[in-house]
Design goal:
With 400 residues, the protein is an alpha/beta fold. Helices cover 35% and strands 27% of the residues. It has a domain of 251 residues: FAD/NAD(P)-binding domain (3-Layer(bba) Sandwich), CATH 3.50.50. It is an enzyme of class 1 (oxidoreductase).
């Protein structure tokens, strides 16, 4: 049976970044990925997130995978809040001295794969991890199925589950508790060949519901509408989507419709698994915690976890020091619950609520935010990631 140091399940941003950082320290990591490389890199089902915190951009740059991100991504100083028919600009650089970077998750995954394979890293595509054996021994063993249907085994020193929100591996954490919140909304998302509504993102609050105007490039728009979780995609033809986006923008900016390249529905949920490790088994990213998308935190949290586990594994392999591994859950939960808090705050600030009392409180909160530099500072420091990725930039050595 093949022996390796670290076996990672899932070639998403969390698994790939960890594998790449470990590889640069000479630690042998193998990534098992159920899907094909082509699916990860091109499927419309993998478009997903678009906002990188200031610290996420820095971590990726330091890790040596940021060349295309820096060339093609869009640096934004802040965001717009749209409400009462006006646009309020929140200038993060003035408020907290940092901005954000707009770059699609699918491009980032392409970059991570290209760079990791380029330095001899190993990603076994179309290899589905199916079981974990000998969990509480020094050599947990990953069982996988090859594309030909054969069963193989990797005898590891550590196993990491980075297998996304539908994770089948997190079940291996014994005695776990799941803290969950179901929000009574879903997001209808579109990607369209159309110029974005503004040069920066607009988070628009309207009595009819929330709308988000984002982008992937100066000619590609990524927009979202708050909808009821029971809605069906077929009830939303193109024309209705553009009409609704226009209405919710409330005349604050102009949108020019264009052909849709993708349309999806995402229910809004949050949950956190505790603990996130057991012995030599660790859970990272969406496999361990999910946030509603309003604060744009999911992808950034996945990168935080990878940075924390990288530091802990380096301490183990370089200095024979295990205490950071023992603290993994504690360290990760700190940034996770901060992001849950912020995502909850943004979600309940911007989405139209059914309860009339709650709805009036929400409008009061929005008006308070418009007038209060202190509240704007709270939003800005969380949005750019002062409590999440920015905390971890210094853990990543700069690659030449
Ligand atoms: P993932 O990116 O999900 O990667 C997990 C990988 O594991 C996948 O490639 C999967 O194929 C693989 N895998 C699963 N099981 C196995 C197995 N048994 N064996 C081998 N491989 C396996 N975040 C935002 O910030 N903003 C957004 O707008 C946003 N939109 C989203 C829309 C959707 C539909 C989804 C699902 C997520 C969205 N997110 C968004 C969240 C963000 O995309 C995630 O937080 C991010 O992908 C987490 O990265 P990850 O590496 O933990 O997991
Ligand atoms: C995007 C998604 C988000 O959830 C968000 O808060 C901001 C931008 C996006 O896909 O561009």
């Amino acid at each position: 049976m093949r022996r390796i140091q670290v076996g990672i399940v899932g070639a998403g941003p969390a698994g790939l970044l960890l594998a790449h950082l470990l590889r640069q320290e000479g630690v042998e990591a193998v990534v098992l990925e159920a899907k094909s490389r082509e699916y990860l890199e091109t499927s419309p089902h993998r478009i997903r997130a678009g906002v990188l915190e200031h610290g996420a951009k820095e971590i990726l740059r330091r890790a040596g995978v940021g060349d295309r991100m820096l060339a093609r991504g869009l640096g934004h100083k802040g965001i717009y809040l749209g409400f009462d028919g006006q646009l309020l600009h929140l200038d993060f650089e003035t408020l907290v001295g940092k901005g954000i970077w707009v770059y699609g998750q699918q491009y980032l995954v392409q970059d991570l794969i290209r760079h990791h394979l380029g330095v001899g890293g190993e990603v076994l595509f179309e290899h589905e991890a199916v079981d974990l054996e000998d969990l509480h021994t020094p050599n947990p063993t990953l069982v996988y199925r090859t594309p030909e249907g054969r069963i193989g085994r990797l005898r590891c020193e550590f196993v990491v589950a980075a297998d996304g929100s539908h994770s089948s591996f997190r079940r291996f954490i014994p005695g776990q508790r799941v803290h969950e919140k179901v929000y009574p909304f879903a997001w209808l998302g579109i990607l369209a060949e159309a110029p974005p509504a503004a040069e920066e993102l607009i988070y628009a609050s309207h009595p009819q519901g929330f709308a988000l105007f984002s982008m992937r490039s100066p000619s590609l728009s990524r927009n979202y509408l708050q909808v009821d979780p029971r809605e069906r995609l077929e009830d939303w033809p193109e024309e209705r989507i553009w009409e609704e986006l226009n209405l919710r923008l409330g005349g604050a900016a102009e949108i020019r419709p264009g052909p849709l390249l993708e349309k999806s529905l995402t229910p809004m949920r949050a949950w956190v698994v505790e603990p996130l490790h057991s012995g030599r088994f660790f859970v990272m990213g969406d496999a361990g915690h999910v946030v509603p998308p309003t604060g744009a935190k999911g992808l950034n949290l996945a990168l935080c976890d990878a940075a924390v586990l990288y530091r802990a594994m380096c301490a183990f392999y370089k200095e024979g020091e295990a205490h950071l591994l023992d603290r993994y859950t504690q360290d990760v939960l700190r940034h996770v619950w901060q992001a849950e808090l912020f995502s909850y705050w943004m979600t309940t600030l911007l989405h139209t609520l059914r309860d009339p009392f709650e709805e009036r409180l929400r409008v009061a909160k929005l008006r308070h935010l418009a007038e209060s530099p202190l509240l704007q500072g709270f939003l800005a420091e969380n949005y750019v990631g002062l409590h999440t990725t920015v905390r971890y930039v210094d853990l990543i050595p700069v690659q030449p």
